[in-house]
Hints:
CATH superfamily: RRM (RNA recognition motif) domain
Number of strands: 6
Number of domains: 1
CATH architecture: 2-Layer Sandwich
Number of helices: 3
Shape: globular
Strand order of the largest sheet: 1-2-6-3
CATH topology: Alpha-Beta Plaits
CATH class: Alpha Beta
Structural class: alpha+beta
Distance between the termini: 30 Å
Amino acid sequence: MKNPREILIAPIITEKSSGMQTSNNSYTFQVSKIANKIEIKKAIEKIFNVTVLNVNTINQRGKVKRMGRYSGKRADWKKAIVKLKEGDSIAEFEA
């Protein structure tokens, strides 16, 4: 898993993650389930040209959903909360 674009899947933009951006310069991403913290840190630094101080990861379980009498399950996924150095920011989140 060397390609940084395979590690980072999508940014997570919610009200809570927007508050974390302004309060403590942290950004939230959906990442590959098999990526570790070191790979996530290197991918963020390479793609966005910023300095990462800390990476926290969370394994999210997929929700059980129903359509009538049939039930299914959404896929499990991994979330990473990345804290950047003071003064660094990711311009794609600012829009």
